Amino acid sequence: MIDTARATAPEKNVVVHAAAGTGKTWLLTSRVIRLLLEGSEPGAILAITFTRKAAGEIHERISERLLTLAGCDEEKLSRQLTELGVTVDLNSRETARGLYEKYLSAIHALRATTFHAFCQDILRRFPLEADAPHDFELVESTADLEEAAWLALDRKISRAKEGALAQAMDSLLVELGTSGTRKALGEFLAHRSDWWAYTENESDPVAFSAKRLRQLLQVPDEADPLAEFVRDTGTRKRIARYGELLAGHPTATNLEYVDKLTRALGEGTPAPRAFAWIGDVFLNSNGEPSQIKRSQVLVKKIGAGGADELTGLHQEISGDLLAAQTAYKRQWTFGVSRAWFLCGQALLEEFQQLKAEGGLLDFSDLEWKTYLLLNRSRHAEWVQYKLDQRIDHLLIDEFQDTNPTQWRLLLPLLEEMAAGDPERRRSVFLVGDEKQSIYRFRRADPRLLHTARHWLEQHAQAETLTQHISWRSSPAIIRFVNLVFHRDDDLSDSADDFPLKDFQAHDTHFQQLWGRAELLPIVRWKSRTKPAPDQAWRNPLKQPRLTDEDSRHREEGDLITAKIREWLGKPIVDKGSARELDGGDVMILLRDRTHARFYEEALRRAGIPYTGTGRGAFLRSLEVRDMMHLLKSLIEPYNDLALASALRSPVFAATEKDLLRLVQNPPGFWRERLARLPLDSKGPDPLTRAQRLLPRWSGYTDRIPVHDLLDRIYNEGNIIDRYIAAAPAYLRSRVEANLNYFLELALEIDSGRYPSLSHFLAYLENQSDDDTTSPPDPSWNREPRVRVMTIHAAKGLEAPVVFLADAARDTGNRERGLRALIEWPVTDPRPRYFHLAGKKDRCDDISQALLHEQQWSSRREEANLLYVALTRARQVLYVSGCESGLGGRGWYGFIERRLLRAVHTGEANRAGLELHTISTDDGEAVFNTCGRLEYGNPDVLAPEPQQKTAAGFTLDPALTKPLAPIAETGIFNPSRTVHADHDSPDDADTVPETRAGRQRRGVVIHRMLERLTQGDARPIVMKQLRLEFNGWPPTEEFDAWWREACGVVDNTALREFFDPGFYQQARNEVPILYRDGERYVYGIIDRLVIREKEIFLIDYKTRTDAAPENIGQLAQDFYEQMRCYGTGASRLWPGKKLRLLLIFTACSGFVELPAP
Length: 1156
What we know:
By secondary structure, this protein is of the alpha/beta class. A hairpin with a 2-residue loop joins strand 12 and strand 13 (577-580). The radius of gyration is 36 Å and the shape is globular.
């Protein structure tokens, strides 16, 4: 077990190898808390992780633990401090209780951020030094830019059709085809960071790369191996003699071979064609030399000498042929790669130019520019010095996901920290697990964890600690994982194995927790049978083709859902006590999304609610497509198809008969026909509704932003209620969630700036193929749902019951075919090689050898994926699969072999594993070995107390319990409970002030008041705010809001709240979080003024209808919000008098509310 005191000691540099479920995040947050206890300032601590979710979790856990320290009793406080390795005394207890206030009120907050956000912050601080736009925007999806770069490249080639670039593109198209060329150049863009590193400081990257590749492949200049082979005089004589001897034994095959050789040697035969004919004679279908036997018949036909000469010639010519073929494949690799370099560099230049014109950077730019800034720029040492002043303690989570560029940009910071002032307390803390590195497709290299560890041990005297005791899983799960991955030293790896290097046996803290791990029977592959006569024909419009593979996955899906139904309602342990298991406790994991639909269909057939894998689920859902068609019809009045789709949707609910009325009312487009159609204005006719609403909505399209337009459509058209009424019961929550998220999406596109409606629709169309969005269900239906997800998406998650489905898929073909071949050794400053490897029939011997070197990394990643999947389970784990029919069984077969070996070594008996076999249909062999490992006694639910009424009958205990409230989140935000109910009324004669408009006004005025009270000169503040809000709101509105904010600060009646001479301290935008019974209360106090004996909590209200005569009445609506804030503040300043004030900016008036 890891020594927490050593791992969190501020004076030590530590590297932790922590297995799955062993509490990596808890250990990292413990280290942060220990640093704070020892006096470190929050702003001097930098914690880096790889996802926003993980960064948010670090912040949340630190806040929760500091809040607990502030409010727990003395015994619990002492126990927690002891656990952290802190000496418990009066001083340490007082320090611990004050940490929460220090953490919240720190001028420079603790930074828990992602790697990319860290790079972004550096580039924003040093844009000139990094050659980055000073106000750059981060673009997360580059699909539109990549497509635009392709179009720009096409135009560039068209302008110079005889140029080198056009010839290179022609070469790629001829050799790879259109789709192959797109794929190859797409890979070039994906590996642009590797390309930049490979060609760093080279004036001509293409020439440099071609030269390096020529040296690697040993390809001579202007070589033509096929022509040299075919035209070589000696070779031609040997082939001619071979043909003469072969003709002496005139079988049909030999005569065919003689004919091919004769044509190959003919004058004018192209070298490639001649080479192919010769290859047909001397090589078999696998590209290997064919065999020619010295049979008695052959000896009889051409004599013993002739037979010996024939076999000798066959061997010589075959060897020369293979040598020429090898040289040709190398030449092909070089030629195609050189064209790839040229076209890829040109495409990359167009791609980068488009971003430069738009002031955009993507994630690769962030990493590369930060790397150059810290390593290669003439300002590197100065920038390192400035960063070094801000960072005393560096913590990095999930280090196994680091890529080479990230490591190279981190190294200067580590060197600066290691070589800094010995009197300054500095530390580095890395935590990771090589077994959980599953992002190789994002260039992650788990070897960097060991590289960083060795570097820190050598330069910073770091300690290395390991943790393999789980805080997640039952002993049954842990023992199963150990049986699968623990290996003897003398056990060699077969090609079908998935080894985990340096795997150490795991253990768990929950030794009494019941659990089960089971390898389910594999679903058999059934030989194809002809359909029955009555089933031979199907309607392809109504019935999809069902293949044998489909039926196997359907059968596996039904097997899984049957197991889930068995488990629903059974006891499971949660936080130390037993409760009934529900759908939210079940997770189905898949290697990828290929067969996900079969498992989702099985859940639907069984009536089990679920959340699917999500790709395309949002943008391709019917309700979202309907809304897109409706918006298209508003700006494309001639788009009859879009209008027809909108009319048929629940928005109008038109029938086919209604559409026929439009069809039969020519001439003109459908919008014109609808406008002149005589309709019943009083009836519920769908076309009447469309005739009334569509012109009104069309009028909004060029007057208000997309979000506000949708807000109006949703309200005037009663969109959500109409869709809920039309949807099946099991889809209603999903439909509502999708429609609400569609509305939110209009604010997110272009980072909150308002796109045109056409741009909004174009963006949605371009994103539909890569859509992975799955919006959360609305609060009224947070029904527990089974989660169907990929293993990559499940990283960091856990569940009481986990199914690893489709585990028998073959994993050997994932990296075959055309691909970029890149290797960046962890100790090298740049990749060792960078070129394009062809498919199997075109791949040269050197590239084949390099690919073979990389196979270990591929197998290791597959093993890591399996490890991550198995370790998601807390109590129950099932592994299932269906036979592929191709011979391999993938992960399933590997687990099967490992369990069988455990039986032979005796490990199975010690672990409690039971195996049983399933025979083949003929009963002569074992088809499948299944197994179950169970530990402990199943959990039992505590009996509910029986209650009897006066009448003597027994009440169901569930009827005596109050219904639990359904909240949006587990945190209560008092400010949200009042804002929605007190919006200003719409003005029917103008474009209404929407909720979004009111929100923008509030955000801007709050920001103005925050900046106005910081002491900076007003002209400077005003200029900075205009830049910050990037042109919105319009100048007239901005100036009006600025005058309103200045009026508040300048009001003499409010002077005591803004003039530093009247108070000891004042803070703006103060977050507050505390526990109130069973809920957490969270909010932001706009301004906090602290005096010697009292504190003021001030909240700004920006309602436009506020006036001196009504603010007293308006203030009553906000009393509950201020009471909640006051309750939390009184806990932090128990000795001061509490005063609550509301300031209404529209009239510069204030109201004081009674304190709680």
